[in-house]
Design goal:
2 domains; Ribose 5-phosphate Isomerase B, Chain: A; 5-stranded parallel β-sheet; alpha/beta; single chain; 5 strands
Length: about 160
Amino acid sequence: MKVAVANDHRGIEAKEQIKVIVTELGNECIDYGTSIEGPVDYPDLAYAAASAVSKKEVDMAILICGTGIGMSIASNKVHGVRAALCYDELNARISRQHNNANVLCLSGDLIGSQALRKIVEVWLTTEFANGRHQRRVDKITAIEQGLDPKTVKSGSK
């Protein structure tokens, strides 16, 4: 699996740790982030990595800024992206199982290295559950296309 990683200046240390985790799990890691400690604009980096997901150049992406909020907002504007801001393992698991999230957003300031490792491992190894959750993901896609989600019909309950 190809995993994009992107960060702003507040996520440099976390990004380096994540790159190790991604490769330890047998994945290819592509770095779209910065190594510059001075301020950079997170929307530029979020867009680069999220666009790679949207264009299927990578399978998933992990984005890091100070809180993760900015990266989440920016990346969710890219067509086909379902970004989830996660602060713990449960959020990471549910974002994959129920929402089929393809972008993980993390805080570089608020998550310690042990928790970071567990969140990333869980997120990368959890599969989408399909079933009733597919109908809901289809409705998210409908919203993205400017459609009323109530018009989406699916056989899954």
